[in-house]
Specification:
- A hairpin with a 4-residue loop joins strand 3 and strand 4.
- The protein is elongated, with a radius of gyration of 22 Å.
- The two termini are about 40 Å apart.
- By secondary structure, it is mainly β.
- The protein has 1 helix and 10 strands.
- The longest helix is centred in the first third of the chain and has 20 residues.
- About 5% of the residues have low confidence.
């Protein structure tokens, strides 16, 4: 009975401390995202490829949203968040759009995805320096595939199509990073998201989201 009362007392004290110290904030910044694994095969229902003639690269975007900082101790806190985040990747090389009589040796197909990210981070605060890590659940709101190609400086193809159905609507990632909290409430941070779920709609292609974020925020 004494142990139970002691545990109950600790829980009540922790909850009271967290409630009195909980703060909220906004954060935003830039993203650099891509896919690792068999990234090209994710769009095989929309594009035709020539083996060995396709290159991929990361694309830039932005993210922004809100979070809560819930202290557990003087050093450790929990940070749930809700963010809009742009992700995707770019293909360049010999490809053609299915259904169109076009073939481009130097065409570019850019996947532009819009996700809702919901991270739950465990954060250590050490005199302004912050180190954090945790899981992140993401929902794919929309994805477009934009294809462009040109010859001798002339743009001969510029199409945009909905590619949302080609991808898994849910993603789970492990995210970790580092930041610094200033005394005026402003902070800077950098993190990396490591996708753990196949992004292909049928989950049979070994391709995963990967991305880095650099942001600035403010605690209220």
């Amino acid at each position: 009975m004494k142990k139970f009362l002691l545990l109950l007392s600790v829980c009540i004290s922790t909850l009271s401390y967290a409630q009195s110290k909980t703060s909220f904030g906004v954060r935003g910044g830039i993203t650099s995202s891509g896919m690792r694994g068999d990234a090209v095969n994710n769009l095989n229902n929309l594009l035709n490829f020539s083996n060995g003639m396709i290159t991929t690269k990361d694309v830039m975007g932005f993210y922004g949203g809100v979070y809560a900082d819930i202290p557990v101790t003087n050093i450790i806190s929990v940070e749930p968040g809700l963010y809009y985040s742009q992700k995707g990747y770019e293909l360049k090389g010999a490809l053609n759009l299915k259904g169109l009589d076009f073939f481009g040796a130097n065409a570019i197909a850019k996947l532009q995805s819009q996700y809702i990210d919901m991270p739950l981070l465990l954060k250590a605060n050490m005199g302004g320096l912050q180190i954090f890590a945790g899981p992140q659940l993401s929902y794919l709101a929309h994805a477009d595939l934009k294809t462009t190609a040109g010859v001798l400086g002339f743009n001969i193809l510029n199409t945009k199509m909905d590619a949302t159905s080609q991808f898994n609507p849910w993603d789970i990632a492990a995210t970790a990073g580092i930041g610094y909290q200033f005394t005026n409430g402003m902070h800077i941070m950098a993190s990396y998201d490591y996708g753990l779920v196949k992004v292909d709609a049928n989950k049979n292609v070994n391709s995963y989201n990967r991305g880095a974020k650099i942001g600035i925020g403010f605690n209220f």
